[in-house]
Amino acid sequence: MLTLRRGLVTAVVERHEGLARIEVDGAPCIAFPRQTGVVALGDEVLVNVQARDLGLGSGGFDVLYANLTRGLDLAAEDGAHVMKLPYTPGQFAVRHAEEGRVFPDNLGGLPVVCCSLHSQVVPVCAGLGESLRVAYLQVPGGSLPVSLSDALRFLRERGYVESTVAVGACVDGDVHCVSVASGLLWAAAEGVDAVVCAIGPGIVGTASFFGHGGVAAAEAANVTQALQGSAVLAVRASEADERERHRGASHHTRAALQLCLGEVTPAWPAGWEAPPWLEQREEVDVTGWEQACAGLPLSHMGRGADADPLFFAAAFAAGRLARARVG
């Protein structure tokens, strides 16, 4: 059941394209104006408070559900007739990139980095470098709105990412695609040099082997191989995580590899000891990764590069390997 509360907007903290950080009755809240309309000080709103009430991973904020002052009777996007979140209380129509467009039959060797965590995206893009045209595909498994990610906004401003695609239930990309396959083919049609596929900020998790959002990396890898692309898996690895299942190479990576049906290459940073089960890895020279990542917003579970260098070096290795495969 939804847990909704009525309140008043008591502060507008900051606005970004597709995102507003506000306070409702003094409590932190985020709003996605492309879904709910513009929000302003004093507006009467409905807020979804359930995740914060339960202490779950919403980031410590509520989510604006409806703006009762200026968000009712909003028109659908012109020409849109495919629903996002269909048959749920939040359904809305969005035009999808597949409509009226012919895509190529295959990816023609396009490198695709498959990530199991959103916090891998920044170091992956650092490994790819600023000179390439990179598309980012967000797939379900964490946050659904692309616009929630401050890191992605930074990457776009600095030229590491050119375009974003919201796949499946994900929303708020530059374009929307129904499936990973059509999202990848859209990227190929646009002539990008590489693709980074990841879930949004946060991750669905149950502490079980397959019950987590990281398995989305396997779907991305399988589709990439089926469409004649070149799949690189960004290994989730850590020397600092207190949880044994995520120490060394995480069980999330092992689960994703077990679900991969075709050829996918896990990238591993040379100089670090890999677990025996990661036999098919390709070791990558990551010399200079710290300098390449300097000034970038590196963060994983509140830890930066100094606190958990293996995590970021492993993701950087995936980007560097994909760059070496650019045709």
Number of helices: 9
What structural class should be given to the helix and strand makeup? alpha/beta
Low-confidence region ranges: none
Q: What distance separates the N and C termini? A: 50 Å
Number of strands: 17
Output the strand order for the largest sheet.
Answer: 11-10-9-12-8-13-16-17
Give the C-alpha Rg.
20 Å
Tell me roughly what share of residues is in helical segments.
10-25%
Q: What order do the SSEs take from the amino end to the carboxyl end, as H and E? A: EEEHEHEEEEHEHEEHEHEEEHEEHH
Largest pleated sheet = 8 strands, parallel
What fraction of the residues are assigned to beta strands by DSSP?
A: 25-35%
Domain count: the total is: 2
Name the shape in a single word: globular
Descriptive overview:
The chain is globular and about 55 Å long. Helix 3 packs across helix 9 (309-324) and helix 6 (216-226) runs parallel beside helix 7 (251-259). The N and C termini lie far apart (50 Å). The chain has helices spanning 33-36, 50-54, 121-128, 150-157, 180-189, 216-226, 251-259, 289-293, 309-324; strands at 4-16, 19-24, 27-31, 44-48, 62-67, 82-84, 92-94, 111-114, 134-139, 163-167, 175-177, 194-199, 230-234, 237-238, 248-249, 265-269, 282-284. It has two domains: 4-67, OB fold (Dihydrolipoamide Acetyltransferase, E2P) (Beta Barrel); 111-324. The mean pLDDT is 94. The chain is of the alpha/beta class and 327 residues long. The chain has an eight-stranded parallel β-sheet, sandwiched between helices. The protein has a five-stranded mixed barrel with strand order 1-2-3-5-4.
